[in-house]
Amino acid sequence: MRAARLTRFASVGALATGVHVGVALGAAHALMLAPQMANTAGFCAAVLLSYFGHGRLVFHTNLRHRFHGPRFLATAVLGLMVSSSITQTMTVWLDVPFALTMACVALAVPVATYLMCKFWVFRPDYSAAS
């Protein structure tokens, strides 16, 4: 069960991460956006895909958007903060290439997201009337 859940999480996460990184790199190169703006564009593009994919496919949650939605949004914002911090540190302070920076983002954010989703975001809403 755990291995199957991790596989589903990795699949949804890989798709969302691909969207995030693809949009970020495209925005940086095609639109000439600064790294932080490009990263934010990529992150936003992946949020809805992540919410529904993780909620339905990974954690098999009957999504109650008023309960799960704000929690997922908080998790996404935290992920954006982590992502932005990595981007700032690596591109501005350490002068690391943007593509390598995005690879680091692609590793760090999914781990944090999984833990938040498993233990907080998609836990059952026991206050809901059955």
UniProtKB/TrEMBL annotation:
Region forming the signal peptide: none
A Pfam family of this chain: GtrA_DPMS_TM
Residue spans crossing the bilayer: 12-34, 40-59, 71-90, 96-117
Domain GtrA/DPMS transmembrane: 8-122
Principal localisation: membrane
Keywords: Membrane, Transmembrane, Transmembrane helix
Residues forming coiled coils: none
Membrane topology type: Multi-pass membrane protein
One GO location term (cellular component): plasma membrane
Superkingdom: Bacteria
GO terms under biological process: polysaccharide biosynthetic process
Localization annotation: Membrane
Family: Belongs to the GtrA family.
Protein name (database record): GtrA-like protein
Organism: Thalassobacter stenotrophicus
